[in-house]
């Protein structure tokens, strides 16, 4: 069918729908959506409510996709188990554990889990709001200033204070797990509770081999020891340190140093203490 013909039919359909009852419009839209999403495949939608827009990340174990809610038009992100791991009970259990950990935290700087559901093929999936690009991706286009740095540090420490208040250590604070909506540091969203622990636990207690990334994780974490909030403060200091080059801010440099001490006894002890320290810094 050529484009003119499609346009004529579409106009006629639109006119007819304008005069029809809302439920008819909804049913027609549903049928059109299904045909466009996957001709001949009736189950192209997730929970009959979300369409898939893009794959954001396909790691070894997990698949992360951007979704659109069909009725609300809102943007969401789904994290599920890779198809290749569909029958692997450990992957499914780890995803559910991650969702449970994240759901304990309610903080404006932590990405909320909106729901957990089962896909038609049985894989568990968690749904979150789309919170923008990870710092790792946004970094090259960000104009780094001392104002940005201080705002980012405050949001990160506030988020950590919220996580630690639930007795959780995130254990994977790194630029790809810190999302920024519109590159705005005040819109920070901490995500990925994949290797989070309850304070006092070691990763080996959960058979979690991956203990964090060498460039950010605290020495005690890399040694596989029992962890507390100070492990996250170390990683936060390392992330902030990455943003420092090009910015002259002695106060922030000193704060980073206090956060990234090798021995945890010598670090600032809590996120709240670090926040107070940040609040008292003289103007750069
Ligand atoms: N809520 C979200 N909003 C926007 N992007 C997200 C969201 N959650 C995850 N992502 C993207 O997907 C990537 C992988 O998600 P993550 O939970 O960190 O998985 P993994 O455990 O494989 O590292 C993130 O680095 C980010 O780019
Ligand atoms: Mg991650």
TrEMBL record:
PROSITE patterns: PROTEIN_KINASE_DOM, PROTEIN_KINASE_TYR. Its EC number is 2.7.12.2. It comes from the Bacteria. GO terms for molecular function: ATP binding; protein serine/threonine kinase activity. Residues 50-284 form the Protein kinase domain. It catalyses: L-threonyl-[protein] + ATP = O-phospho-L-threonyl-[protein] + ADP + H(+); L-tyrosyl-[protein] + ATP = O-phospho-L-tyrosyl-[protein] + ADP + H(+); L-seryl-[protein] + ATP = O-phospho-L-seryl-[protein] + ADP + H(+). Keywords: ATP-binding, Kinase, Nucleotide-binding, Serine/threonine-protein kinase, Transferase. Belongs to the protein kinase superfamily. STE Ser/Thr protein kinase family. MAP kinase kinase subfamily. This is mitogen-activated protein kinase kinase. It comes from Limoniibacter endophyticus. The lineage of its organism: Bacteria, Pseudomonadati, Pseudomonadota, Alphaproteobacteria, Hyphomicrobiales. The gene is impN.
């Amino acid at each position: 069918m050529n484009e003119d013909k499609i346009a004529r039919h579409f106009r006629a359909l639109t006119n007819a729908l304008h005069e029809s009852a809302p439920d008819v419009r909804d049913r027609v839209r549903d049928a059109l959506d299904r045909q466009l999403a996957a001709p001949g495949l009736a189950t192209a939608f997730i929970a009959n409510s979300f369409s898939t827009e893009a794959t954001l990340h396909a790691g070894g174990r997990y698949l992360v996709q951007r979704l659109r809610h069909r009725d609300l038009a809102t943007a969401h992100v789904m994290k599920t188990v890779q198809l290749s791991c569909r029958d692997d009970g450990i992957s499914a259990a780890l995803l559910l554990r991650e969702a449970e950990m994240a759901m304990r935290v309610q903080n404006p700087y932590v990405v909320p889990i909106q729901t957990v559901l089962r896909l038609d093929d049985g894989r568990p999936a968690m749904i979150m709001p789309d919170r923008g690009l990870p710092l790792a991706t946004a970094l090259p286009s960000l104009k780094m200033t001392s104002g940005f740095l201080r705002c980012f540090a405050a949001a990160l420490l506030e988020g950590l204070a919220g996580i630690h208040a639930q007795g959780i250590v995130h254990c994977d604070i790194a630029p790809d797990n810190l999302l920024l909506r519109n590159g705005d540091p005040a819109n920070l969203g901490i995500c990925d509770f994949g290797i989070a622990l309850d304070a006092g636990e070691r990763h080996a207690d959960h058979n979690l081999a991956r203990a964090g990334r060498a460039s950010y994780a605290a020495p005690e974490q890399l040694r596989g020891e029992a962890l507390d909030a100070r492990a996250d403060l170390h990683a936060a200091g390392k992330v902030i340190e990455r943003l420092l080059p090009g910015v002259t801010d002695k106060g922030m440099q000193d704060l980073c140093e206090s956060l990234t001490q090798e021995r945890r006894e010598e670090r600032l002890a809590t996120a709240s203490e670090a926040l107070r320290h940040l609040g008292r810094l003289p103007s750069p």
